[in-house]
Specification:
Elements: H1 2-29, H2 36-53, H3 64-91, H4 96-115
Bound molecules: protoporphyrin IX containing FE.
């Protein structure tokens, strides 16, 4: 059970790496586009995160307050990806504030995971 949970944590981290990595590539290249791979990263992190939020009965109760906050942040990131993607289709670019917020909120969720 412990190994299985560790594998789910690994998948969760792969989702995080996929989302944040693809965002970094866009930020560093100056293109600032929203890409399909960002949506994939978010979906992977979300599904694995929800699985981790279940009570695995390993070491005490999960911190539901923290999990709830992370879930809200993920929903906001998803909304920003959706809105930004639609804007990009219509006007050819993503508003700068919206693009940066996606990266900041992604780091915020990782920070919540390790610091809270
Ligand atoms: C962009 C979204 C997310 C990012 C960047 C993220 C990031 C992380 C990171 C870096 C860890 C590892 C922490 C550690 O090993 O100490 C982690 C763990 C965890 N995450 Fe997330 N997360 C996200 C979304 C979610 C969501 C939506 C949920 C649940 C609804 C969730 C639930 C958890 C749980 C329960 C753990 C603890 C795993 C353990 O016990 O080691 N995460 N997250």
């Amino acid at each position: 059970m412990e190994i299985l949970r560790s594998v789910v944590v690994l998948v969760h981290l792969i989702g995080f790496a996929t989302l944040f990595g693809s965002w970094i590539v866009e930020a560093a290249s100056g293109r600032r586009e929203i890409t399909r791979i960002m949506h994939w990263g978010l979906a992977i992190a979300l599904v694995a995160g929800l699985a981790l939020a279940a009570p695995w009965g390993l070491d005490g109760d999960p911190n539901y307050m923290k999990i709830g906050v992370k879930l809200v942040v993920v929903i906001v990131i998803g909304a920003l990806l959706g809105i930004g993607g639609a804007r990009q289709k219509r006007t050819g670019e993503v508003p700068a504030a919206l693009f940066w917020l996606i990266g900041i909120l992604t780091v915020l969720n990782a920070a919540l995971a390790v610091l809270w």
